[in-house]
Structures are given as structure tokens and as C-alpha cells.
Amino acid sequence: MGRPENPLPTGARNTAVGKLAHWLRTQRHAAGLTYSVMAQQAGCHATTLQRAAKGTGVPPLRVVEAYARACGANLEDARRLWRAARYEASTRRHGTPEPTRIDLIREMAELVPAMIDIYHRTGATLREFEQRAGAHSQLPHSTIHRILRRQVIPTRHQFGLWLDACGITGTQRMAWVHAWGRAQEALLPKGRPDPKAWNEVTFIPSTPPPSHHRLPLAEARAS
């Protein structure tokens, strides 16, 4: 097993980043592997793998996956823990407040922060998120960036693509569609809803990303 690793930072196990690091270390110990042996199997340098389990930052997803594969660990568990760590780091960095519950959203000022929240939960970069929305879509990374900075309100079509990129489907998607309808109604004169605000979102062909990129229902704030 080589020499023992340094202990995780104080209080790390109470954070998502620390839980990811602890899980990685547990998988390595269970497999009885040294980092040098893992490096040969994972195609990563031993120090890269060791750094991923330090608990001081969020390692790249590809490194976490390589670590898990080398240990014969569950990749879905690795991805779930990584998404949680990435989300935690993103919200702390941006000082993001707790978003309004989907069923309580009544205006765009509440809907857009909720959209930003589920974006961060995917763990995707701007380019990756753009790819999930579909090639040559109306949701380029520049628009994604402006939405994240709250500089623009997304169009109905962009909102539907955003849900697709986050893997929001089924009844969960309908909760978001209803939230959009309420927020859209608040923007219109005399509160008259625009019928297209419902139809264009509801019937956009949903092409969710691969299952390992899809946001688990339990992780999205639809309730």
C-alpha cells in the first residue's frame, strides 16, 4: 500500500469535497492498490491520482473516473460525489443563495437563479453545457454565460434547451414548465399568459444527455 496518506483536512468529512476524497481513499484501500500500480491502470500520473484524494479541492472528473476504474469502484457513485463537490465549490465561490423552490416561483427574478442552480449541479463547463443543449442550438456558451451572470432573460426555446442540458425530463420537467408559465405571466400586461409560453417549452423535442451526464432527480430542486 506504500506509505500512509496525510489525514484529510480538519472538518473535511463534513464537506462534499471531503466526502469525495474520503470515498476515493476508501476505494483504494479496499482494492489494496498503491498509487504507482493505479497509475499504470488509470493512465494518469501517480501524483495526479494522489492529489485527487487530498480533499483540498475538486479534481477533474476524468481523474475521478480514472481513479474509480483503477479500483474497480462504481462510476455512478464517483460521478455523483464529484457533482456534489463541484456544486459545493461553485456555490461557495459565487456566494449563491438558496434558490426558490420550483413550486413557489412566481417571477423571472426567482426562476433564473433556480436555472443557475441546476446548471451548477450538472458540474458542466460552459462548452460542455452547450454541447448537451445540442449542436448549432440557440444556446451557445456566450448566451449561457450571460444567463449565469443574470444579464439576460432566456427565451422560451433557450429555457427548453437549458432543461434538456440539465437532463430534466418527465414530471420534473413539467414542474419547471409551470414555473416558467407563472414567471412569464408576471411579465405580461394585465397578467395575460402567452399560450406559446407553455407549448413551445412543453413540446420541444427532449434529447437528454447520456445517462452518466444526466442530473439525478433527487439532486435537482424541483420540490
Automatic annotation (TrEMBL):
Domain of life of the organism encoding this protein: Bacteria
InterPro entries membership: Cro/C1-type_HTH, Lambda_DNA-bd_dom_sf
Domain HTH cro/C1-type: 24-78
Transmembrane segments: none
Pfam families in the record: HTH_31
Record-level Gene Ontology MF annotations: DNA binding
Record's protein name: Helix-turn-helix domain-containing protein
Organism (species): Streptomyces sedi
